DNA sequence: GGTCGTCAAGGGGTG
DNA sequence: CACCCCTTGACGACC
């Protein structure tokens, strides 16, 4: 028997006026003559993003959802090179503590997925430096929430540069210069164009990083690999983690636009996968990456609650019998 | 109140 | 090497 718990990404289709990703571009920032006023505006937006995050967590509790991906755009321009003197954490510290306390109290697993401009295997030192800056932001946010940062931040391997082996070794080289505290925060995910499960496993096993299996990416980019043969090794990358194994689940938009995320998750596709892993792990958390966000989660739960091979636990989790 | 262009980033792909 | 596309949500301008 396996417990399956579902989560969703960043924003809710139900909760109105609650974007955790409001922003200000550098172009807009520069148009404000008074630099101090512009920074205060950034702080206002950030605080609003955090307040919306807290509202989303409360919405999650009401809907019995215990897995949530925080927005990686909580603080606009936090890493901008023109704002090195801005202590963006300080004015937010109270709200961060409140968010962290709420998540802990209600047992909500939170994590991050910075966008694909974080490229840890880039041959360009500037790119790696900026990537580290972004990771540091994520680390400070988690620390500010008083949440253990271990395995809270999922990344792609990075660029392939038409040389898979070389680009994997570049990752290893660059990894050696990453501070230990940041290293421990990272998980790696197989992607849909550059690095297969096999490629990603190579890094995860060598560097002791948990692998987040993305089923949709695998279907889009696997050559002749069968994920089923590697499942035990994927599970093993989580053996020292304080958190249960997690994965990503989404469905192709169409045959033609296979890589794009569909509005909802195809229940048959999901269960073809679950059938294979049943009993291999006591618990698995599945992050739903669908255009319709939490609405996709609710729809999926509606579709599976009548199945004979499941027993419902709450609004977002069930036993797989 | 819809629709379109803009903003940011790095990689990927084309010519 | 030049160029445009990918992706994402927000947001402003426009009718």
Automatic annotation (TrEMBL):
InterPro entries from the UniProt entry: UvdE, Xyl_isomerase-like_sf
Molecular function terms from GO: endonuclease activity
Keyword vocabulary terms for this entry: DNA damage, DNA excision, DNA repair, Endonuclease, Hydrolase, Nuclease
Family annotation (Pfam families): UvdE
Record PANTHER family: UV-DAMAGE ENDONUCLEASE
Protein name: UV DNA damage repair endonuclease UvsE
The organism of origin for this protein: Chungangia koreensis
Primary gene name: uvsE
């Amino acid at each position: 028997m396996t417990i399956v718990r579902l989560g969703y990404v960043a924003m809710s289709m139900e909760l109105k006026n609650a974007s955790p990703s409001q922003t200000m571009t550098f172009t807009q920032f520069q148009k404000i003559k008074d630099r101090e006023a512009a920074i205060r505006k950034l702080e206002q937006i950030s605080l609003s993003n955090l307040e919306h995050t807290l509202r989303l967590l409360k919405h999650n509790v009401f809907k019995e959802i215990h897995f949530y991906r925080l927005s990686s755009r909580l603080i606009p321009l936090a890493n901008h090179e023109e704002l090195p003197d801005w202590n963006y954490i300080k004015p937010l510290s109270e709200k961060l503590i409140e968010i962290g306390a709420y998540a802990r109290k209600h047992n909500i697993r939170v994590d991050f997925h910075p966008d694909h401009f974080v490229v840890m295997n880039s041959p360009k030192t500037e790119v790696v430096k900026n990537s580290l800056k972004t990771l540091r932001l994520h680390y400070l946010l988690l620390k500010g929430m008083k949440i253990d940062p271990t395995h809270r931040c999922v990344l792609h391997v990075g660029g392939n540069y038409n040389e898979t082996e070389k680009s994997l070794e570049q990752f290893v080289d660059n990894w050696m210069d990453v501070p230990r505290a940041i290293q421990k925060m990272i998980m790696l995910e197989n992607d849909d164009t550059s690095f297969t499960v096999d490629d990603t496993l190579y890094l995860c096993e060598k560097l002791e990083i948990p692998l987040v299996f993305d089923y949709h990416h695998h279907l889009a980019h696997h050559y002749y690999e069968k994920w089923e043969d590697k499942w035990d090794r994927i599970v093993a990358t989580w053996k020292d983690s304080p958190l249960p194994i997690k994965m990503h689940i989404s469905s192709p938009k169409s045959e033609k636009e296979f890589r794009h995320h569909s509005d909802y998750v195809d229940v048959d596709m999901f269960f073809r996968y679950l059938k294979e892993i049943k009993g291999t792990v006591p618990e698995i958390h599945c992050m739903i990456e669908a255009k319709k966000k939490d609405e996709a989660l609710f729809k999926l739960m509606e579709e599976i609650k009548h199945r004979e091979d499941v027993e419902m636990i709450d609004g977002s989790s069930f036993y797989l019998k």
